[in-house]
């Protein structure tokens, strides 16, 4: 993920495009996820972006029934966790 704030809007667009190209269940909610990410970024900056990404990941985990473990985290979550520490 980008470190500079001006790159976040492009990253949000790329995330949405990736979700649409993946063809998974997220295709149905990709647009609403994009709006949520943009609103969180505008309201709270990079922290809001990452909080919303975490929230979306948690929703997906609950829907799929997957367990939350470090080995199950998406790559962006591992990088974010590593960067923060």
Provide structural commentary.
This protein has 85 residues and is mainly alpha-helical. It has one domain. It has 3 helices and no strands. It has helices at residues 8-22, 30-64, 75-84. Helix 1 (8-22) crosses helix 2 (30-64). The longest helix is centred in the middle third of the chain and has 35 residues, at 30-64. It is globular. The model is unreliable at 67-72 (pLDDT under 50).
Strand content range = under 5%
- Structural class, from helix and strand content? mainly alpha
Shape: globular
- Element pattern in H and E: HHH
Number of strands: 0
- Give the N-to-C terminal Cα separation: 16 Å
Descriptors:
85 residues; mainly alpha; 0% strand
Topology:
Layout: H1 8-22, H2 30-64, H3 75-84
Helix pairs in contact: 1-2
Give a brief outline of the structure:
The protein has 85 residues and is mainly alpha-helical. The chain is built from 3 helices and no strands.
């Amino acid at each position: 993920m980008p470190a500079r704030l001006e790159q976040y809007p492009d990253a949000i667009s790329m995330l949405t495009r990736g979700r649409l190209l993946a063809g998974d269940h997220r295709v149905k909610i990709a647009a609403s996820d994009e709006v949520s990410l943009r609103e969180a970024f505008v309201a709270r900056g990079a922290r809001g972006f990452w909080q919303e990404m975490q929230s979306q990941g948690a929703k997906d985990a609950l829907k799929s029934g997957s367990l939350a473990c470090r080995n199950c985290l998406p790559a962006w979550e591992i990088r974010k966790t590593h960067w923060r520490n």
